[in-house]
Amino acid sequence: MSGTPVIQHVAIIGLGLLGGSIGLAIAKHAPGIATTGYDTDPATREKARERELVGTVLDSAAEAVAAADLVILCVPVGAMGFAAEAICDALPAGAIISDVGSSKQSVADALKAALPDHCIIPAHPVAGTEQSGPDAGFAELFEHRWCILTPADDAPTEAVDALSRFWTGLGSNVELMGAEHHDLVLAVTSHIPHLIAYTIVGTASDLEDVTRSEVIKYSAGGFRDFTRIAASDPTMWRDVFLTNKDAVLEMLGRFTEDLTALQRAIRRGDGDALHDLFTKTRAIRRSIIEQGQDDARPDFGRSDHSGDH
Amino acid sequence: MSGTPVIQHVAIIGLGLLGGSIGLAIAKHAPGIATTGYDTDPATREKARERELVGTVLDSAAEAVAAADLVILCVPVGAMGFAAEAICDALPAGAIISDVGSSKQSVADALKAALPDHCIIPAHPVAGTEQSGPDAGFAELFEHRWCILTPADDAPTEAVDALSRFWTGLGSNVELMGAEHHDLVLAVTSHIPHLIAYTIVGTASDLEDVTRSEVIKYSAGGFRDFTRIAASDPTMWRDVFLTNKDAVLEMLGRFTEDLTALQRAIRRGDGDALHDLFTKTRAIRRSIIEQGQDDARPDFGRSDHSGDH
Does the keyword Transmembrane helix apply (chains A, B) (predicted)? Predict the structure, then answer.
């Protein structure tokens, strides 16, 4: 590869929430870039054509990538290896291969194994909603969100720069870090929160002495917040936990230690320990809002709270 | 008490998020009802006068309740007994005493001990935001939310009816149940979710290998949802856990059992077990939205997601 590659044609493999949003974001922010796309599900391809998620929806992954200088794999992390194999023979030699997976070391390994001679720059835009599929994407998903690139040490600087500029162009902030560190950070900020949310929603569904109807009626006490996250795509999240096992188990261990300490404080009636923790945790919320990573309005500005919104 | 009492004057003790919202909701929905209020904090009383949270803010609890036929205690549940003692001598004989506390058996006991000769109907409007204090209240807080009354078996039917009508008038749906069952239900739908949120935010704050700055930057992966709940009022929540200890510990035990099972599935690489749970939990979200207990828009309709809202 000589000089800094300019990305003129992006192929998107997988046209769900993330893939669809990338296509729409390119159309909004960088309409000069051509886009092609493919999804293994014919119904998703049909919907993608209808919503014009990309310029051209092709009926095979090979056709979709044939003229691309950037290929973004937007499939569950457990399917990355298969997706890479499917495009292997059709890939232009100079194309950059990237992805949007939530765990990075395993994706890097899978892509390297399938495409040993290509330029691979794994990426993770930290953005999403609880919805999934070709109906769920929207052009603004990545605006003011961080996109983490985890290039290997020997990745060509020009390719990393080109991918950084691509994501910046869609409205993201870009950060580089090692895959292993990424997996630890995201275990805390994303994977464990999802695991906890899935668990409490599961626990509440299985109770005998509290009915499901009661759980639903009184969910505004806090529970409903967890149900949003626990409505996320099951296949995507299964794969995240299977592929980021070590970091997830490590962080889960720390969480359960802290929960046990709190349980003990409740059992012993140690109000000061509870009050101290509950005071400390307010500061992080303030920082998140100050740094534009959440809505400052009470209750996320949910529509049922006031006639104003 | 003879005949069905008509509530014409409500005294609100404690003018934070809940007390202030009740005052504003009465002004909006039932402007014929007179309102007086008191808060132990002079700055809160001043702010309450400025925002006109109630018709008249008095400088003592006794003055505030002197002419009331309904007194609503809107203080942390650990302070209910003190608040009841403070109004004891000034209470009109026929007044109904109620509250908004999140645990009900302990409040019923505390009120009964302080006011053995009065008509006590504990209540819990299942509504709130992460904000607190006299600036936080708004008139619509209770609309489409459930308010649970936990009258003792010997509570006068007319008083229960009057209080039900009062809450219905503010836009709430009203349900009656026993205090003990309430405490179990709310342990699941509110107390454990708060405890878990406080814990994970605390865990994330204390890490050494992941910086606080990283936690904040990548919080949109799910973590930020928990920080909202973990920004709730520390004193209120300390008291909830101290006063609903048994139900909280019981439900916490079930949650940690389920979490341990999930941890084992991850360690063993049991993708099917993960996928099954992650699929099951989607149904509850749908029901909550169908029953008007949450915003159907992706990501709660947060403002940063699209130009539309």
Answer: yes
Cβ–Cβ of A223/B175 closer than 8 Å?
Answer: no
Interface predicted TM-score of the whole assembly (ipTM), two decimals: 0.91
Instruction: Write down the architecture of domain A182-293 according to CATH.
Output: Orthogonal Bundle (1.10)
Domain B9-177: give its CATH architecture: 3-Layer(aba) Sandwich (3.40)
Among chain B residues, CA nearest to A145: B220
Q: Can you list the positions of beta strands (E) in A140-263?
A: 146-149, 173-176
CA distance linking residue A205 with residue B8, whole number of Å: 42
Nearest-by-CA chain B residue for A126: B221
Residue A287 in contact with residue A281, Cβ under 8 Å? no
Residue linked to tokens 């109000």: A271
Measured CA to CA, the distance from residue A75 to residue A71 in angstroms comes to 12
The number of C-alpha atoms within 13 Å of A204 and in the hemisphere containing its C-beta is 35
Q: Alpha-carbon torsion B274, B277, B283, B284, what sign?
A: negative
**Is B307's pLDDT higher than 60?**
no
Q: CB neighbours of A146 closer than 8 A, spacing ≥ 6? A: A125, A126, A172, A173, A174, A175, B217, B218, B220
Query: Rounded CA gap, B254 and A145, in Å?
Result: 36
Residues of B in contact with A201 (CB under 8 A): 281, 284-285
In tens, the pLDDT along B112-139 reads 999 999 999 999 999 999 999 999 999 9
Q: CA-to-CA distance for B233 and B129, rounded, in angstroms? A: 10
Q: Do B293 and A148 touch (CB under 8 A)?
A: no
Domain ranges for chain B, please list them.
9-177, 182-294
- Identify from A106, A203, A286 which residue to disrupt to test chain B contact, counting B C-beta atoms within 10 A and taking the largest count: A203
Q: Tokens 């006011």 label which residue?
A: B115
User: What is the C-alpha to C-alpha distance for residues A164 and A176, in angstroms, rounded to an integer?
Assistant: 9
Judged by a CB distance cut-off of 8 A, whether residue B180 touches chain A is no
Tens of pLDDT, residue by residue, chain A (309 residues): 445 678 999 999 999 999 999 999 999 999 999 999 999 999 999 999 999 999 999 999 999 999 999 999 999 999 999 999 999 999 999 999 999 999 999 999 999 999 999 999 999 999 999 999 999 999 999 999 999 999 999 999 999 999 999 999 999 999 999 999 999 999 999 999 999 999 999 999 999 889 999 999 999 899 999 999 999 999 999 999 999 999 999 999 999 999 999 999 999 999 999 999 999 998 899 999 999 999 899 988 886 543 332
Element (H, E) at B149: strand B146-149
Structure tokens, B27: 């002004």
Across the A:B interface, residue pairs with CB atoms under 8 Å apart total: 373
CATH of domain B182-294: 1.10.3660.10
Query: Which residues of A are less than 8 Å from B286 in CB distance?
Result: 231
CATH 3.40.50.720 is the classification of domain A9-178? yes
Q: Measure in Å the smallest separation between the Cα of A93 and chain B Cα atoms.
A: 33
Three-class secondary structure of residue B38 per DSSP: strand
Whose tokens are 């119904």? That residue is A43
Chain B window 7-46: which residues touch A at a Cβ cutoff of 8 Å? none
Query: Rounded distance, CA A114 to CA A118, Å?
Result: 9
Chain A interface includes B123 (CB < 8 A): no
State residue B304's pLDDT score.
52
Neighbours of A42 (CB within 10 A): 9
Task: Compare CB distances from B266 to A245, A255, A303 and report the shortest one's residue.
Answer: A245
